[in-house]
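Quick question, first post here. What does this chain look like in 3D?
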Amino acid sequence: MSDLKSSTELPMTSGFMEASGAQIYYEWTGSGNPLVFLHAGGLDLRMWDEHFKFFSSSYRVVRYDIPACGRSTVPTEPFTDAGVLRALLIHLGIEKTCLIGESLGGRIAIDFALEYPEMAKGLILSGPGLGGYEWSKEYTDQIGKIFSFAEKGDALGATEEWLKHPHLLPAMSNPSLRDRIRQMNLDNAKLWVQRLPERPLEPPAIKRLKEISIPTQIIVGALDVPDIHTICDLLASNISGAEKVVIQDAGHLASMEKPEKFSERAHQFLRRIF
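> Answer (accepted):
Ran it through. Tokens below.
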């Protein structure tokens, strides 16, 4: 497998499409079987820079800014993230795809596979969230500190507190990532104080995991927070045939912290399903 840094950069197509009253920014490149990358909360499509370039040598790769993130605008109508993704795929003429999602992006990928199973060919879920999961008191107490700033309309204060959260501690301890992650979070700071007309999946995904029957790879950083490890174990035990991969010396953002290991395991998985 070629090195991420030495991968050839192909011509890229970008644009906007409308969904639920929002303008959704997207990029795609490459050819072949389609892959769609879904970014983590607080970040945007830039988190996938290395992987977007690397996988384009073998696949048609798509990435986009989730509503209200990056260059995408805030929906003016009730929406679901899975519904927005479906609209994007239809816009791009993609009938079926493998989804690669990290954190929030993983939660969206799970919801999409449940809502539109005919359009999902496989899932790679890295440190994913899970609709309906009840977070531990320790976790909610930590998040509460962030929302204490958000409730006062202090988006920058909330972002600074988030950057100290155990979710991001391993990545923020990496000198080669710290500034990049900090800047993306600052660029998306408004998320902490915005109110989005989002409709949750009902019933929530945690009650429907056994409905997922497509090939699924679950990736988790060994240093990620306990709640994420619990979610990954729930997914591995309830999704038939799911493969769980632990990446050592990585935290919540395993794709960025250990990009070579992440791409190697993802590449092996994709070769088995396409």
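The chain has a mean pLDDT of 96.
The CA atoms of residues 131 and 205 lie 5 Å apart.
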